[in-house]
Amino acid sequence: MSAAIIDRKSEEELSEFAEDIINTVREPLIILDQNLRVVKASRSFYEFFKVNPEDTIGTLIYDLGNKQWNIPKLKELLETILPEKTTFDNYEVEHDFSTIGKRIMLLNSRQIERAFGKERIILLAIEDITERRLKEKTLHETSRIAREYLDNLVNYGNTPIILWDTDLNITDFNPAFENLTGFSSDEVIHKNIEILFPPEEKEATLNSLKELNSGIKGKTTEFNIRGKNGTIMTLLWNSSNIFLDDGITVVGNMAQGIDITTRIKAEEDMKTAMRNLEASNKELEQFAYIASHDLQEPLRMVASYTQLLERRYKDKLDQDALDFINFAVDGANRMQRLINDLLDYSRVTTKGKEPQLLDSNYILGQALANLHQVIMDSSAIVTKDELPQIMADEGQLVRVFQNLIANSIKFTKNVIPRIHIGVKEQVDSWQFSVTDNGIGINKEFEGKIFVIFQRLHTRDEYPGTGIGLAICKRIVERHGGKIWIEPALEQGTIFYFTIAKGTVIKMEQLIRPVEILLVEDNPGDVRLAQEALRESKVNNIMNSVLDGVEALEYLNKRGKYSEATRPDLIILDLNLPKKDGREVLEEIKMDVNLKTIPVVILTTSKREEDILKTYQLHANCFITKPMDINQFIKVVQSIQDFWFTIVKLPPV
């Protein structure tokens, strides 16, 4: 008796345990007896199919939910398939339920044999795969559309498209490619892609294509192809791998080509044009040289001898002859001015200096100093704003201010010229203005006044060659700016011009100190030279050595002087230990790397043979050391001032 109670209690516990498991499973689960009536159902079954236990337990499965479960495929599974098998997995059933709509389900069933004397039961697990099937259908449709789009892209695209496999055999070749190459698809499909390449480039191009098989997602390459008729065309290729679904395995490649043959030819034509322009510029420079020398010489002769005729035969010539002579001299002088102005115009770009960080107040001051007499004669009043530091070519910007101010004075009548130089900071530039109270310029003539040799007035009214404003325009454009005019508020004209700001750098970075090598064995003279150079206005670095051997080691960067910088100027004594200064000079001037460095001889010797010998050895200057200390300092300073402010040194 007690054993039966224990068995029953154990069975109840197991049943309770099984029910807990069933209710824990997320998927709907139902247990049927041999007659296909519901013995038990999981909580998820009730929730999903929206039924309750009272209408479910003991009910024939086909009668559930007003016979909603009377599904032919379900009958096939339970009555035909399952009796012959104890298990069956992933049996797909599609049905439209009145409560939850159309669903697609996967049924997994098990026949479970129970203890002796008990009937078998059927366990039916239901998995709703409706959303999955919808996604698969959408994905399939998307893939179909993508395939159609790819087919359309390949077959109807306007740009050449080609596909090839990993063996470099062509698998597709669109009509645009046919039109480009002259090959039909039938002629190239399944053939190696090398058929498209010029023989001399075939190997290199194929090697480039093989690199794509390593898994490169996309690559842009430029190479040539050969058409059916032998024409060579340059294409810019955008290519990409074609992968399996794993995204790793490459099965082929697809490339879209852009014919850039015309562009390449245009670039070559541009290079040719640039070479021609360079040659033309050299010819222009040659012309400028001829104009500055050869053309001016006969003009000078004409003017000089015409004036000589006037001086010698003035008393014997009538007024007409004297007028003719004046016309000839005036014409020659005017031609000379035109040639000089033309040279100035051509040299704006060819002879311009690198921009430096400059104080434009100083630049304006230079221009006003050059115009001092003109300003005094006209009683002109010139005012200015506080002007900024700018990156500019000093000489050229002085020319701009000078030309504009001179114009303002020249084109003012019956009033005292009043000129104001202003400035306004912009994002990328400085905008300068030169405002006058002159006769003014009509805005409609703006395009004319900046053209070379264009004039708005006769030479009798306002003398000049008509090139000054053209030079200003050329200089301003070289400085990254522009120049234009506006009428002043009351009377006169405002000239505006801009100067690009450029890169702001510190003055000490911009101006490189000049390097001086002093070769002197007298420590006292070395110290005096250092003192003189320290007081000099030129930023310098002076290095000194005590004998001729050490001097040559320094210049050739040997031994401890391996890091020495090349000097801009050498000051050399003659009577030196170890190696005489004359020998040092000779070696310097025979060395192709050193001979361009200026050498100034500074020695106590006054012997004529020393002077003659050093000049024969191509010394640049010979100076005898003075006895007076102050004079010695002045000599050293004058050496530096002359060689670094007056003379143009050769480039390093």
Task: Tell me what you see in this structure.
This protein is an alpha+beta fold and 652 residues long. Helices cover 44% and strands 22% of the residues. A 5-stranded antiparallel β-sheet has the order 2-1-5-4-3, sandwiched between helices. A 5-stranded antiparallel β-sheet has the order 7-6-10-9-8, with helices on both faces. Strand 1 and strand 2 form a beta hairpin. Helix 13 runs antiparallel to helix 15 and helix 17 crosses helix 21. The termini are far apart. 23% of the residues are buried. The N terminus is likely disordered.
Note the main attributes of this structure.
5-stranded antiparallel β-sheet, 21 helices, alpha+beta, 652 residues
Number of helices: 21
Computed over alpha carbons, the radius of gyration is 50 Å
- Fraction of helical residues: 40-55%
Strand content: 15-25%
Neighbour order of strands in the largest sheet? 2-1-5-4-3
Biggest β-sheet strands, sense, barrel: 5 strands, antiparallel
Q: What does the overall shape look like? A: elongated
Unreliable spans: 1-7, 455-465, 503-511
Structural category is alpha+beta
Query: Span from first to last CA?
Result: 121 Å
